[in-house]
Amino acid sequence: MLASPAALRSHGLLGMNRRNVAYISRYNERRLYPLVDDKKLTKERAMLHGVATPTLRDVIDTQHGVRDLGECLGDLERFAIKPSRGAGGKGIMVIQERDGEQFLKASGQALTLGSLQRHCSNILAGLHSLAGAPDSVIIEDLIEADPYFESLSVEGVPDIRVIIFRGIPVMAMLRLSTHASDGKANLHQGAIGVGLDLASGRCIHAVQHSRRVHSHPDTGVDLNRIAIPDWQNLLTLAARCHDLTGLGYLGADIVVDRNRGPLMLELNARPGLAIQIANGKGLLPRLQWIEAQEDIPDSAEARAGMAMAEFGEKIRT
Amino acid sequence: MRHQPLFFLAVSALIIIGVSMMWLRHDRLGIPLLPENNTPVWLVEARIDFVALGDETLASLSLPDDPPGYRIISEQAASPGYGFSRVTESTGHRGEWSKREATGPQTLYYKVQFAPGRNGAPRASGNTEAPSEPQRIIWEEPQATAAADLLETAQRRSSTPASLTRELIKAVQSPNDQNAALLLDQHSPQQLVVRLLNQSGVPARLAMGLKLEDARRNQRLQPLVDVYFEDSWHLYDLERGGQQGITPNTLVWHRTSGPVLDVMGGQNSQVRFSMMRQSIPALDLAQSQTSADQPLGYISLYQLPIEEQGMLKLLLLLPLGALVVAFMRIVIGIRTSGTFMPVLIALAFIQTTLLPGLTAFLTIVGLGLLLRGYLSRLNLLLVARIAAMIVLVVLLTGLLSVFGHEMGINLGMTITFFPMIIIAWTIERMSVIWEEQGAREVAIQGGGSLIVAIAAYGLMQLATVRHLTFNFPEVHLIILALILLVGQYTGYKLSELYRFRSMVERD
Questions:
Q1: Are A109 and A82 members of one domain?
Q2: Domain for residue A316, yes or no?
Q3: Fewest beta carbons less than 10 Å away: which of B89, B191, B333, B358?
Q4: Helix, strand or coil, per DSSP, at residue B398
Q5: Are A3 and B382 an interchain contact pair (Cβ–Cβ within 8 Å)?
Q6: Is residue A76 part of a domain?
Q7: In terms of domains, do A182 and A296 share one?
Q8: Which B-chain residues 450-489 have CB contacts (< 8 A) with chain A?
Q9: 3-state DSSP helix/strand/coil percent for chain B, to nearest 5?
Q10: Which residues, including other chains, have CB under 8 Å from residue B292's CB and lie 6 or more apart?
Q11: pLDDT tens for residues B294-309?
Q12: A21 near A14, Cβ under 8 Å?
């Protein structure tokens, strides 16, 4: 069954070609890409602009540095190993726990130090980076999920993807991993996407594998009752992400830490379109409204306020 | 879209220029717009290379003389500074190039055009020329015993020279015959049959034939066995087993007892052949252009040596493949692994034909993925792992060739057309996708690549398409315009109509 192009257009759905031509290539300057494609750089800029991110523990730049991985880690219990310039969430390894010599992944799979080292050396050789360019490894603290978020999913920390256009948050979704998605938050791997009301942070619609769902298949949580605490702060953090990169069309992944509140996990200059399925709404009307605005306020708070006023659910059912 | 008017102006300019140039060339030069069903004409180019020693030089090449099944339409020798003459000796026609003084590498060309001669049997001349006495054959031990043995067995089973020839060919080709195996150590099968025939008193000699295939370069002559009985010479192609005659696409080039190529005053001489199919109007054109300087002639590809024309024929198909990839990815939304890998696969398919190519490709990638599984346990650095993968892919190719040959499938040669390094990278990418995103993603991207490759192949192998891209190079301006247009497409992809279907279904 195919949808007719006219029907999609009437829903204001943004297609990939249009996103690439009309938004990404027009509003995102090529020279700014490294700021989001290289997580090391993103973190440096984030610190400059007062955007909180997970604590960086270590950076490995050379193959011989991999040998000292054991010392680097020390007795760090919970951490994530990431390629600095990984593409599409590739190559991220999350260690939840240590059991003697063994490192346990979120799924419970046990790994040796040797396989962590192999992973690092693959990252350095550029296996996960765009075009296979040499890369560096970053090791950062694992997020201590806020108890509210912890109750929502089984493995991995739920994160919130916000699309930001010209500094104004446009659409948001909460991504819940499932057993089917192996703790990963990618919708096409079976994670749940929960569309969020920009005014309140409440759930308006939720999907798994593009089909509407009302409860989490693993935990049974009623998805319709989800409401993100401290929503305004989170949206302000998202709006600030525009300032640290200068990119016009941007995706920010935000998590809420138990101790530190909302943290920016990573940025994406080519954010995907699945957020529209999660929200049951197209991006185009909102993007076009923003394109028509002459003055965009300088302060992130004001821009977040604009989004809450303009893009909130006006009719509650 | 600020540059929209300019953009459309440029695109329409490209299309208008392309179409009008095509029309002009069609109208003024009479190049047909569609490939015609005329009898194809083969243009064969012999290229002689040698290193001259600094003295008087004379190169003499045996020329085809009334080859069975073909007739010569025209011939031409091109070689700067050399005098050329066509001489007819008792041993047949030869072309002779001579120069008073020559040093260093020399290249001589001889071009000849053949049309399939449907009208009747090959003429008698040359074919009935009675042979001198059969050659005297001297063997050394232990070959002498083996030869005598082999001959005796064959003679026992035969009554006439024709049946003797058949039996000898069978014996030489039989894999279990130890006598034959011993003798084949030092002689090619064709040589061996000729020697044995002469030994038994039947005059025989080696003839040389050329397998005609479109756009081939660097080909050598293939030996054929020529036997004299019943007052004329008879050809045997060992590829056909003991059956008399030659395959229809074989052009008999050399059918006398002398050498094919004889160079005096030079060394390291060799002769190589390039060939190409043409339709007759194109041929007329090629001839008229060499003399007259037509206004549109300067963009013609016909003046190039055939060797380069053959290469260009393939190269000129690439833009079309690129267009197919752009269309499939942007408008249809098929995901492929490696953006333009499908074009390279399609190009390989053109050389191998689809089914054998597809089999070979799937086998290699499948086996490669298995091996990659073991490699990943070795903890290698990425570059080393891919280097190792390349070695394994090459080895696999060799192995499959041997295996295919044993089983009588000519798979081996076809695999060598695939770009090895691309295959190694494909395997690596696929296996990473497999580890991280599961087999389903591998199937989607691998299948997508193959679908795009097959679509590109389907288009590229059409006779009309090949005709247009080669005879009307300006067609590429139109292709370029189409690619630019596809690049501006901002509508939904076909795959998105499926992906977002749930959003519409709700109402």
A1: yes
A2: no
A3: B89
A4: helix
A5: no
A6: yes
A7: yes
A8: 488-489
A9: 50, 20, 30
A10: none
A11: 555 555 666 677 777 7
A12: no
A166 and A251 inside one domain: yes
Closest CA to A266 of A140, A130, A151, A146: A140
d(CA A183, CA A142): 14
How far is A215 from chain B, CA to nearest CA, in Å?
A: 18
Q: How far apart are the first and last CA of chain A?
A: 29
Q: Encoding tokens for residue B458?
A: 């389907």
ipTM surpasses 0.85: no
Point out which residues pair with B275 in neighbouring strands.
B44, B216
> What's the pLDDT score for residue B126?
45
Torsion region of A173: left, alpha or beta (phi above 0 gives left; psi -120 to 50 gives alpha)? beta
State the Cα–Cα distance between residues B379 and A115, nearest whole angstrom. 8
Query: Which residue is associated with the tokens 């696969």?
Result: B345
Structural element, H or E, at residue B465: helix B463-471
| CB nearest to B490's CB, from A1, A18, A210 | A18
Backbone phi, psi, residue B342, to 5°: -55, -35
pLDDT of residue B123: 41
Indicate which of B445, B492, B507 best probes the interface with A, i.e. most A CBs within 10 Å of its own CB. Answer: B492
DSSP state of B268: E
Contacts of A39 (CB under 8 A, 6+ apart): A82, A83, A84, A85, A86, A138, A266
Q: Which two tokens stand for residue B398?
A: 């060799």
Per-residue confidence (pLDDT) for residue B177, from 0 to 100: 76
Same domain, A167 and A279: yes
Full domain range(s) for residue A118: 56-141
A119 phi-psi bin (left φ>0, alpha ψ -120 to 50, beta other): alpha
Domain count, chain A: 2
A47: which 2 tokens? Answer: 């610190």
Q: What is the largest CA-CA distance in chain B?
A: 96
pTM of the model: 0.66
Shared domain for A190 and A213, answered yes or no, is yes
Name the nearest CA neighbour of B274 among B37, B49, B96.
B49
Given an 8 Å threshold on Cβ–Cβ distance, is B503 in contact with A8?
Answer: yes
Q: At a CB cut-off of 8 Å and minimum separation 6, what does B3 contact? A: none
